[in-house]
Amino acid sequence: MKPESIQKYRPFPAVDLPDRQWPNRTISEAPIWCSVDLRDGNQSLPIPMSVEEKLEMFDLLVRIGFKQIEVGFPSAAETEFNFLRALVDQNRIPKDVTIQVLVQTRDHLIRRTFESLEGVKNAVVHIYNSTSPLQRRITFSDSSKETIKQIAIDGATLVKEMVPTLPESNITLQYSPESFSDTELDYALEVCEAVSEVWGPTPENKIILNLPATVEWFTPNIHADQIEWFCNNIKNRESTIISLHTHNDRGTGTAATELSLLAGADRVEGTLFGNGERTGNLDIVTVALNMNSQGIGTGLDFSDLSTVRNVYEKTMRMIVPDRQPYAGELVFTAFSGSHQDAIKKGLDRRKKELKAAGESEIVKWGVPYLTIDPRDIGRSYEAIIRINSQSGKGGVAYILESEHGFDLPKTMHPQAGEKIYSVADELGREVSNEEIRELFLENFVNISNHLELLDYELRHNVGGPGEVRCEAKISVDGAEKTIEGGGNGPINAFVHALQNAELKHFAVTDYRSHAITGGSDAGAAAYVQIKSNDDDIDAIWGCGVDPSIEMAGLKALVSAWNILHQG
Ligand code: KIV
Ligand code: ZN
Question: Domains in the chain and their CATH numbers?
Answer without folding.
Answer: 16-316 (3.20.20.70), 333-383 (1.10.287.1400), 397-565 (3.30.160.270)
